[in-house]
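thought: fold this chain, then report.
action: predict
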Amino acid sequence: MIAVEEDTRPVYTAKTTPAVLASYAEAIERARALGPTLGERATGTERLRRLPDENVADLLASGLYGLMVPKRWGGSELGAETMIDVTIELGSHCSSTGWVHMLWTAHMWLLALFPERAQAELWANPNTLASSVVSTVGDVVPVPGGYTWTGRGFFSSGVDHCNWLTAAVPVKREDGQPERRWLLIPREDFTIVDDWHVVGLKGTGSKTIELNDVFIPDYRTVAWREIEEGESPGKAIHANPMYGAISSANFTAAMAAPAVGAARGFLRTYFERLKSKSSNVDDGLTVNFARWAAAAAEVDSVHALTLQNANRYSRIPARQVSSEERAKCGRDQAFTAQTCRKVANYLYEEGGGTGLYEKSDMQRFWRDANGAAAHHGLTWDWHAVLYARTMLGLPVATPGSANTLVRS
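observation:
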């Protein structure tokens, strides 16, 4: 066991129970009220290379991270559409906070699918937070009563503040059949490697984690395939249909939202610059006006696309959603993120020299939009090919079967 040096993080020191939000409108109102404060802290957040304790305490107290937490465990169960729009609102002021909020919130949907015993342990602390890793190395080996893992996981956003980690890993079976499972691991069982030195999303603290012969009991695991088929242990516990729906409309539904938030922050900053330079006469800014209008329309369009998929698929049984529809969700998430990246680049090239200053919000949102779209799960070429192969009925790689080829 690896001892935690101190427990002064908000996940342990918060004295109040997180608010339970009654509606989408209340959640958005709270996010809008918090956003400017996050923006004021953004420079300090980048210097820390993780979220400030104050940001975490605000997210916990507000209930904004509990949008996907089951009501049984003190959450609001408001669903994917609310998670998406809250993430965008927060991210339009501080992209790093928007990114970490997105992941922490989405993890709560995933963890609601674990066996009941694991859920009871997790939410014994009402302020619990969980980071994740999906890119890992090292063998996960079945042993009596569970699994052992010696290895590393990468890009664990927000891990410094969390008391749990969830990891998607390939399991090494004796019969040679591949299986992918989600594991739930307490903070005491792994080490954080402080290696997050980056140019975008600097404040997310997306660090590497290391494990040495860690034992994970079987009840703290769930099969990837059970989740994708909507037949996880958690489905029998929670009545809300979102816990039996597809992961791409719940768990990863908001994956592109931080890029949208960064693009909206960029648009707002660029607009303020236009206001300071424009007048009632022809002032040579026609090109800038046109670019800003086109960029705003593109961001509105992909935002609507993201919400459309969440609305369509986040509550219907997973078995009723075709492989073509699932591939479309992934395609649209990647398209949304890459569109926001292009919008930021399109406007930044007309931003002038003032956008180069480190004190400029324009360069921060530009870096963050590119950083958010760089996530492997939002890579356009990969999702575009997957979508095309699925529509053509060709074999595709599926993570749930450890990248084996299956027919759609």
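thought: worth noting. The mean pLDDT is 92.
final: tokens above.
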